[in-house]
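ok, trying the design again with the full structure, not the truncated one.
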């Protein structure tokens, strides 16, 4: 079988300020089953599902070193790996740790429905809505917000809070040292497994 056909188009938009840029890429996802997102360098991830058969990625990058940051998309068989960070040739006059303090990366992704998704990172804010086969999120002190997500969902954090907005779902929510709100959400088809060590879990029923 021929390797997945990938059509990438890259748009680089300069806003007049060297400290700000936007990157966009689009990938045909006909043979893609798993989308992996490394959110380690991102302060926010927004993920939605759409009607098309493409994965659309937009990165909004700000900060002193924005021109040294890039969006990396790798396709390996039926898997896409998406991440953003410094280009290999970047040489910070101080160190990369201090450089991370003055950058801001937000990723916006729109993917086809009924795909598998894995998002992992540290302190990112992850906001998800749409229809998926499976969603797995693993964060440290990052926050995860699930808005009317359909599919099998697993979220694990260390200290980050977890929020759910949905009409119905089968929910298993556990926080070892944090608080879990009263679950007034009727049972339904989506399955949510939510775990955190010290974070709080808030469950809200929508109309």
């Amino acid at each position: 079988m021929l390797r997945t056909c990938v059509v990438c188009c890259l748009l680089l938009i300069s806003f007049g300020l060297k400290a700000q840029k936007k990157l966009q890429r689009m990938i045909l996802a006909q043979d893609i089953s798993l989308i992996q997102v490394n959110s380690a360098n991102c302060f926010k991830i927004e993920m939605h599902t759409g009607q098309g058969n493409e994965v659309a990625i937009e990165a909004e990058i700000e900060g002193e070193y924005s021109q040294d940051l890039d969006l990396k998309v790798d396709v390996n068989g039926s898997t896409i790996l998406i991440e953003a960070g410094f280009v290999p040739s970047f040489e910070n006059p101080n160190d990369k740790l201090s450089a991370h303090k003055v950058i801001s990366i937000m990723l916006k992704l729109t993917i086809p429905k009924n795909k598998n998704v894995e998002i992992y990172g540290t302190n990112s804010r992850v906001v998800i809505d749409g229809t998926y086969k499976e969603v797995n999120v693993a964060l440290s002190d990052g926050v995860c917000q699930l808005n009317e997500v359909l599919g099998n969902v697993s979220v694990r954090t260390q200290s980050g809070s977890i929020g759910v907005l949905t009409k119905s779902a089968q929910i298993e929510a556990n926080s070892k040292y944090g608080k879990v709100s009263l679950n007034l959400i009727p049972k339904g088809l989506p399955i949510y497994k939510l775990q955190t060590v010290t974070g709080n879990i808030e469950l809200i029923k929508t109309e």
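Keeping the full-length input from now on. The helical segments are 96-100.
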